[in-house]
Amino acid sequence: DWCPHNDNVIASASEDTTVMVWQIPDYVPVRNITEPVVTLEGHSKRVSIISWHPTARNVLLSAGCDNLVILWNVGTGEMLLALDDMHTDLIYNVGWNRNGSLLVTTCKDKKVRVIDPRKQQIIAEKTKPHDGTRPIRAIFVADGKIFTTGFSRMSERQLGLWDLNNFEEPIALQEMDTSNGVLLPFYDADSSIVYLCGKGDSSIRYFEITDEAPYVHYLNTYSSKEPQRGMGFMPKRGLDVSKCEIARW
């Protein structure tokens, strides 16, 4: 994960239970970079998720197969806090809200949790936002709402929009198709657009999220001949705004 505050810093997580932070110089290095700036050790099983804090510098989140979420101070290499008793099973994904005051996590125990890391408390929880058994993904969108992707009982892919103040009923729940790849949501806060792509899919659907019904508006689908293997957003300053480009992958 590239650091949002410093273009020369990238963090990586590994099966060897460590998280490493690397400094990439501006010039082209003559040989491979093999020495990290800092190695973060605290997980007991492989680390599958890392995410930089969106607003605080040098704060990095990691989540591992030991069901543990750790926040690190990268500057000192110290553990800021460990959320160890919140997840009972494998963590599928972790997302920050816009200012980094809350976390949303999805877990193999079919729960979506909203966590206040400062209080180290779960402030909201939803069991089975999607009825299917396949993995769920969740991200924060505008106004603190939560957007989820998952599967219905009939194994159809679904998307859902939820309000934290009333986590029982979804604001919107839509069925998409019967493909079996997990839908990965990417949210662009500037345009309130969610892009959905899946490993093995050859299309990207995108939706606008608004305050008026039906709340999640289908915009368009991008299709290619090649199936996707992985996805990443280009930072906004890498876009060609003279051609009205709003996102690049």
Number of strands: 19
Radius of gyration equals: 18 Å
Q: Residue-averaged pLDDT, rounded? A: 95
Please state the overall shape, judged from the principal axes of the Cα atoms. Answer: globular
The share of residues in helices is: under 10%
- Which H/E pattern describes the elements? EEEEEEEEEEEEEEEEEEE
Gap between N and C termini? 15 Å
Spatial order of strands in the largest sheet: 4-5-6-7
For the largest beta-sheet, the strand count, sense and barrel status come to: 4 strands, antiparallel
Q: Output the structural class.
A: mainly beta
| Percent strand | 35-45%
What's the total helix number?
0
Task: Identify low-pLDDT runs.
Answer: none
Describe this structure in words.
Keywords: Repeat, WD repeat. This is Coronin. Belongs to the WD repeat coronin family. By secondary structure, the protein is mainly beta. The chain is 0% helix and 44% strand. The chain has no helices and 19 strands. A four-stranded antiparallel beta sheet has the order 4-5-6-7, with no helix packed on it. The mean pLDDT is 95.
